[in-house]
Each structure stands twice: as structure tokens, then as C-alpha cells.
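Please check both lines for our workbook:

___
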Amino acid sequence: MSRAFTAKWGGWTLLASVAGSSMIFIDGTAVNVALPVLQRDFSAGADALQWVIEGYALFLAALLLLGGALGDRFGRRLLFAVGIVVFAVSSIACGLSSNIAMLIVARCAQGIGGALATPGSLALITAAYSGAERGRAIGTWSAASAMTAAAGPLLGGWLAQAASWRWVFFINIPLAVLVLVALRFVTESRDRSAPAEIDFAGALFATAGLGAVVYGLIGVQPGTPAPFAVWAILVGLVLLGMFVMRERQSAAPMVPPALFRSRAFTVANLYTFLLYGALGGSLYFLPFELINVQGYSPAAAGAAMLPFVLIVALFSRRAGGSLAHLGARPLLSIGAAFATGGFGMFVAAGIGRPYWTSFLLPSIALGVGFAYLVAPLTTMVMDAGEAHGGIASGVNNAVSRVASLIAVAALGIVLGAEFDRNLSRYLGPGLGVTSATRGIVERERAQIGAGHVPADIVDPKQHALVSEAVRHSYHLGFEMVMLAGAGLSLAGGILVVVFLPANVERTDP
């Protein structure tokens, strides 16, 4: 049975890695579709909703490097198991949350568990496979991870509509059990050259710095002075500068400087920052657009990106296998080009048009783009940092998470500025909206900033006018966000064309 299982699935290592990373990726995206439902259940403002996502992403991004270093030092299987247990327990706490503050705290704990587990998933594969088999195994992992990340909205929307948003978290428990069972058959691996000292100070600087920057970005409200937010950003940048200095001077840095002597590794991580910033930052706002503006049900909103799921799942492994023949540069360039086109198509979606003529084509284009880039990008990173598998994985995963973390907060400012500008225009004098209603809208700006106007805050006679103004204003902000996503993707494509050598990862004579 063991040989048959190995031949068919690539072994227990691949099963544990795929199942473990899948539950982490699912919760990274499934919660997004449930946010409009959460907003109504908890009467939460747009800033609190952002922290439901950002709290998770913050600790996941900031501690991934520490998780990779701990895994290399004490054993990747051990840290992977510990991370899965922490993630499962905090998932239960998320599902039992009685208010938005409790949910945010539990999401932060989820991020810690994810940071301990995520580097180990790829590092275990790197230790267990070599050569072409490694490329295929990473391709399988990449396809499964991308598929579950993209399937998360479909699952989250269906659960939020058919049962409760709480089940988005409870489904992690059987997956965690599966991972822990599979890990019993996985051989432990570690980096024998890893230093005994662990850079906890660096992890503290990274966490505090990123947290302060994100806090400041979320706190910036277009058109209103926010000195506390500006100071938070400045403090965060100082702390991040101290993190860089710490890594350069430390005898045992979380990120060995030698990793960045590889041009391929450096370019790959810059490309990751741009493309995953575009994806994570832009698509955070998609469920609000679909549910609050377009009138989709949560399940339909989750299903809107199903073409993305299927295309990435079907073709990522093939792209990973073709890396040795074509090289990384053409695959990454094509991926960025399709992603740019996909985000651009979102701008032309309009309001009220059928799905087939609005959101289908962008989903297909993004699927093709990420099918081309996910596996080659991951393989290139892991091969460039093979001697430090856990750390190399941690760096690249951290970059993708930091990109999404910063992009959600920064693009929230872009959307908010456009939303405010157009809302003032739609609610201007002479359009039937009373001054009293405009005052209420201004006071409830945080709650309606996600595109939904609760029925009980505005006079019923004025509600239709305000709702229509809010819908159109949010949509125009959404268009600006998608334009920004297209710009980031285009920049990624230019980056690899200009700076990545043409023969990277190509082994043909």
C-alpha cells in the first residue's frame, strides 16, 4: 500500500505538505467573501474588517522567517506539526468569536500558527526530492496551494450563505487531523549548519515594524488629518530599518545575506512582491464589489473566481515541468502579461452586467497568468536557496504575505479617496438627499465605506438614494484599485525581462 501510495501521490511528505498548506491558504482567502456577512453580524466598520484580514497576514508575514529558521534548527517536521496544532486551536477560537475584537485576536493567533507551519511545507518537499522530481513535487504543491487559495472564496461564500461564516474556520479541524496523521510517516529533516542562536530580536523588529506601518495605513482616512497614522508609519519604517541593520550585523540572521547574492533569488522575490501584492491587495475588495455593489449572493461571489481555480489547478504542474526547457524569464513574463490584462478587464466590468460579460474574462486571464508563474517562481526560489530550504521558503512566503498585507492597506487608501470624492458628488445639493442624511452618512463613513448602507441608519425615504450613491462610489473606487493591480503586474513583467538572465533554470543544451 505504501508503494502504491507513493507512486500515485508522491508520498506522505507531499500529502502532509499539501494538506497543511491548503488549510492555511484557504483561511487566507475564504474569510474575504464572508466579510460582508461579518460586517452585518457585528456592525463592524471598514477598518475593523481590514484588521480581520490584516491581523492574520501581519503575524503570518512577520514570523515566517522565524518559523523557517526554527524549522531548520530544531526540525522541519516538528515545527510544521506545532504550527498546525496552533492553527487548529485558534481556528476553533475564531469560529466561537462573539465580537469583532475577539475574532481579530484569534486571527492573529492563526497567523502565528501559519508562520510556524508554512515554511516547513516546502522545506520538507525540498529535503525529500531532488532534480526533476522536486520540480514536479513543487508543481503539485503549487497547484494544490493555488487551487485551495482560490477555492477559498467559493467555499467561504457557500458556507456563509448555507450555514454560517463560523464554519469557514471549523473546517480546518479535520484537515489538521489528516496532516498530523500523515506526519507520522514523514522523515525529520533539518539544516545541520543552522546556528544555535535564533534571531528573536529580528523577528520582534519585523513584527513591530510591519504592524506599525499597517496600523498607520489603515488609519489614514482620505480628506481628514490623521497625525497618529503618519507617526505610526514613520515609527514602523524606523523599526523595519532596524530589522535590516540587525540582519546585516547578526552572527545568526534569520535571512543569510548570501541568499541575496543570487540575482535570480533577488529578482524572484521582487517579482513576488509585485504580483502577489497585486493579487492579494486587489482581490480583497472583490467580494464587497460583488455582494454589496453587484448584488451577488455570498455563494455566487465565491464562485466568481472559479475559472481562476480550475486553470491554475490544471496547468500549474505543467508549467513547473517546463521550467527546465524554457527557462524562468519567458514563463514569468507571460504570467505577468496575462495578470496585467486580467486586472485591466476588471475595470471594464461595469455595474449590473451578466457575469459572462463582466467578471468571467478577468478570472480566466488571471488564472492563465498565475498558472504560468506560480510553479516556476517557487522552484526558482527554492533552488536558489537550496542550502537553507526553510529560510528560503520563509523569505519568499514572507515577501508574498508582506506584499498582500501592505497592498490591502495601501489600496484601501486609494479606494477610500475615490469613494469619498464620488460620494460627495452623488450626494450633492439638488440630488434629493437632505442635509440631515448627509450628516448621518459622514458620521457612519467607516461602516458604509465597504459599499453597504444598513437600513436602520438612514431614513427609509432616503435609503434608496444613499444606497445607490454608495454603490456607484464604491465601484469607481474598485476600478482604481484594479488599475493599480494592473500597474503592479506590468512592473513585475518589466522587472524579469530587464534583470533576470534568460538561462535561469534552463538545462537544455
Summary: The chain has 21 helices and no strands.
